Amino acid sequence: MNACIRAVVRTGLHHDLQVVGIRRGYAGMIDGDFWEMDAHSVSNIIQLGGTILQSARSEEFRTAEGRKMAYQQLKKRGIEGVVAIGGDGTFTGANIFMKEYSDIAFVGIPGTIDNDLYGTDFTIGYDTAINTAMNAIDNIKDTANAHNRLFFIEVMGRDAGFIALRSGIATGAEAVLIPESKTNIDRLIDTLEYNFNRKKTSSIVVVAEGDDAGGAFTIAEKVKQKFNHYDIRVTILGHIQRGGRPTCMERVLASRLGMEAVRALLQDMKGVMVGEQCRKIVYTPFENAIKHHQEINPILLEMVEILS
Length: 308
Ligand code: F6P
Fold this sequence. Notes:
By secondary structure, the protein is α/β, with parallel strands linked by helices. Helix content is 44%, strand content 18%. It is built from eleven helices and ten strands.
């Protein structure tokens, strides 16, 4: 997100706009927690994970009273357009706000490690998260191979399996379990058994945290009851996936989306999420971005089956 903030600030200044950072998202908007930004405010942040503006979940912004306070703060500061980085919650809030106060334009940028947003091939955060997960799984594979172990590795994705799927393919996982497809434990055991009989010295199962059969611990327990040829271990990768140095692809994507969001505001666009599909910039109305979710490409699931 820092790369994106940097791009928004510098593009705004390039077009002679005054740029104000809002700390802590909608919560900071309500409190008037503003930061007058110049080119120097965003120096040396492109390589940093997280966000210098911080983030917050705001219950108050869900209320009409909270949004009114936010509106008054924006007006007092002379703010005419807002670039909001986030996902469903952020865009839902922006959409309701704009229906109540049509003189402030919101443009959204997709930011979530889960990559489940409609209207963009990739969201900000996703590429870094999958590379972090991939590196961690590579490391775990060394132990798995050395000790003939079966590892269940849980990655983030409360409602989405994109992180699990890509990191699983990239590490040659024997199976990937995701919320978008029904998990069949007996079928999983058949796969593991088949691999064991093929003299595989270890196996890796990547589990998205929101899988319908449960988290990695629950699934490992279910498997253990019927299949115990390997020593079984469980690793939860957790929040290491949400931070760290952004990848090159991420920095470039975030920079591009930040730049295009400011251009969209300058062209009087509002109520749209700026995304990138097939290398082209696309504008998706918030209503659509909220209503739909990106779908899993079934080919990726097939790849796990055929290639491992
Ligand atoms: O929504 C993105 C996400 O990364 C989910 O995949 C994950 O379950 C959740 O955030 C974790 O959120 P928190 O930091 O609040 O535990």
